[in-house]
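Example S7 (C-alpha cells).
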C-alpha cells in the first residue's frame, strides 16, 4: 500500500467521525433567540437575523433568458425572418430577465442583507466592485447564453455611474459607465462541462429512450395525450410521434410568451383553451425525458464534479474565487438536478438558476442548494436526500463523488466508471495542498500511536488472566491493509 492510499484511508476514517459530529444540535432554520425582538419593527427587506453560517463560496448555474424559437414546424406561419436576430437568439425581454437575475445575485452576495444586525459582523461574500480574483464566468458557446452572462454581469457589477460628457467617451472616462467582464467558453463539440460535447453514449441512450414506446412513463404520456398528439399532427404538418411533437412545442411556446410583441398562437391552439393547457403540461413531461435520471451523469456529472472540486479546493485554500457563474440551458439545469436526484419534473423557466453554496460554521463546512425558478419570490432551499438542507461537505462528497465518471470523454465512449477507491485516491492527489497532506500525515501518526498505546495497555492488563478475550482491532482500522 502506497502513502497516498494510506492517507486516503486515514482521511476517510477521520472525516467519518467529523461528519457524525457536524450535524447542528438545533434546527439550522430556527431563528429563535437571534431576532432582536426589542428593536424597531422591520417593514422592508429581510428580517435582520444573525446567521451563524458564513458563505465562503457560491456556484450558480442559470438558464438563458427569453429567446426566439430554435426552429419552426412545417405549417408554422412564422419564419426565421419574423424573429429579431433569427432563431435561437436572446430577446430584449430575455436581457431584462437576466439583468434582474444579476441584481438578485448582487443583493445576495455583495450586501449584508439578512446576515447581521450590526455592521461589524457583516458576512457578505463578494466585493461590491468587480475583482478578477473573486469571480469566474463560464458559458456555453451560444449567442443567447453568452449574452445572458453579460446581462447578468451588468447588474451584478454595475459601473460607478455618473454624469458624463459624451466627448469623453473615447477616454478612460468610458469605464465609469461601462464595466467589461470576461466570459469564458469553449467550442460546443468540446464542451462536456455545460453541454454534452461529442457524447455518443448520451445520444445513443437518448434515442433509445425516445424510441422505447414500452417505457411506462412514455406509455402514460402517449395514452393521456393521445388526442392532443393527433390534433397537433393534423394542424402542424408534423408526424404524430414523440419527435413530431418535440418539433412543435418550442415554436408554440415562444409564440405564446411573445404575444406582447405582436406574435399570436395559431387558431387551432388559440380557439381551444384545453389545447394550450395540455401543451404546457406536456412541456414538463418532455423536460423529464430530455435528460433521464438513469444517465444524467453524462450531461451533469462533469459540472457537479467541478463544483465539488471547487468546494474541496476552497477548504484547502487552493481556490481563490468566491463566485463561479455558469450560463447555460434548461437541459443543463435539469441535468445537474437529475444527477443529484433533486429534479422536480417541471420545465425550468427562463433564468431558472441553481445556487450551490458552501457554508462555514465553527470550522465545519456545509453545502446548501437553492433553486430560483420564479423571479417574483425568493429561491427555495432544496433538501438533499438523506443529508438535509445544510449537508456536511464530507457527506456531500461521499454521497455524489463515487457515482461520477472520472473521465467524461471515456464515459461518453461507453467506458464504465472507474474503481471508486482509485478515483478517490486520484482526487486527493489532485486537490490536497502540501500543507493539508502534511497535516493529514501528522494526524495519522498521532492516531496510530494512540491506538498502539491502547492495544499495549490492554494486553498488559489482560496478560495474566486466562479468561480474557482478545479484542480485535476495529474493522475500519483493519481495512487499512
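Recovered sequence:
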Amino acid at each position: 500500500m502506497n502513502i497516498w492510499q494510506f492517507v486516503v484511508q486515514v482521511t476517510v476514517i477521520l472525516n467519518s467521525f467529523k461528519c457524525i459530529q457536524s450535524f447542528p444540535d438545533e434546527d439550522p432554520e430556527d431563528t429563535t433567540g437571534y431576532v432582536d425582538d426589542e428593536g424597531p419593527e422591520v417593514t422592508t427587506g429581510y428580517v435582520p437575523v444573525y446567521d451563524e453560517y458564513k458563505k465562503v463560496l457560491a456556484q450558480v448555474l442559470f438558464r438563458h433568458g427569453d429567446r426566439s424559437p430554435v426552429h419552426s414546424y412545417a405549417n408554422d406561419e412564422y419564419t426565421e425572418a419574423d424573429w429579431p436576430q433569427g432563431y435561437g437568439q436572446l430577446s430584449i425581454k430575455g436581457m431584462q430577465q437576466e439583468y434582474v437575475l444579476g441584481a438578485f445575485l448582487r443583493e445576495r452576495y455583495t450586501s449584508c442583507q439578512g446576515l447581521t444586525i450590526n455592521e461589524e459582523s457583516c458576512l457578505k461574500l463578494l466585493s461590491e466592485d468587480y475583482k478578477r480574483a473573486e469571480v469566474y464566468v463560464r458559458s456555453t458557446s451560444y449567442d443567447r447564453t453568452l449574452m445572458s452572462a453579460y446581462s447578468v454581469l451588468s447588474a451584478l457589477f454595475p459601473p460607478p455611474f455618473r454624469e458624463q460628457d459624451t466627448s469623453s467617451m473615447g477616454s478612460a472616462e468610458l469605464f465609469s459607465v461601462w464595466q467589461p467582464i470576461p466570459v469564458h467558453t469553449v467550442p460546443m463539440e468540446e464542451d462536456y462541462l455545460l453541454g454534452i460535447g461529442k457524447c455518443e453514449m448520451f445520444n445513443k441512450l437518448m434515442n433509445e429512450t425516445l424510441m422505447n414506446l414500452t417505457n411506462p412513463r412514455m406509455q402514460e404520456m402517449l395514452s393521456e395525450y393521445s388526442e392532443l398528439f393527433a390534433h397537433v399532427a393534423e394542424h402542424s404538418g408534423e408526424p404524430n410521434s414523440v419527435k413530431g411533437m418535440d418539433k412543435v412545442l418550442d415554436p408554440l411556446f415562444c409564440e405564446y410568451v411573445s404575444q406582447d410583441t405582436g406574435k399570436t398562437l395559431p387558431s387551432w391552439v388559440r380557439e381551444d383553451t384545453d389545447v394550450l393547457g395540455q401543451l404546457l403540461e406536456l412541456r414538463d413531461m418532455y423536460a423529464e425525458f430530455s435528460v433521464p435520471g438513469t444517465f444524467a451523469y453524462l450531461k451533469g456529472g462533469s459540472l457537479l464534479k467541478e463544483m465539488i472540486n471547487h468546494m474541496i479546493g476552497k477548504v484547502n485554500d487552493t481556490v481563490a474565487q468566491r463566485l463561479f457563474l455558469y450560463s447555460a440551458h434548461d437541459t443543463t439545469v435539469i441535468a445537474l438536478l437529475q444527477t443529484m436526484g433533486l429534479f422536480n419534473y417541471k420545465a425550468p423557466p427562463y433564468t431558472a438558476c441553481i445556487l450551490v453554496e458552501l457554508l462555514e460554521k465553527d470550522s465545519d463546512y456545509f453545502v446548501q442548494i437553492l433553486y430560483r425558478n420564479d423571479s417574483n419570490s425568493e429561491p427555495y432551499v432544496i433538501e438533499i436526500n438523506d443529508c438535509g438542507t445544510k449537508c456536511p461537505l464530507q457527506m456531500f462528497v461521499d454521497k455524489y463523488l463515487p457515482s461520477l465518471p472520472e473521465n467524461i470523454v471515456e464515459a461518453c465512449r461507453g467506458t464504465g466508471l472507474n474503481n471508486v477507491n482509485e478515483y478517490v485516491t486520484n482526487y486527493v492527489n489532485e486537490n490536497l495542498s502540501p500543507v493539508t497532506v502534511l497535516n493529514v500525515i501528522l494526524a495519522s501518526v498521532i492516531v496510530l500511536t494512540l491506538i498502539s498505546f491502547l492495544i499495549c495497555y490492554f494486553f498488559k492488563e489482560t496478560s495474566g488472566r486466562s479468561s480474557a478475550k482478545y479484542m480485535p482491532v476495529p474493522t475500519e482500522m483493519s481495512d487499512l491493509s
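Notes on this example. Residues 51-193+294-430 form a domain with the Rossmann fold fold (CATH 3.40.50.1240).
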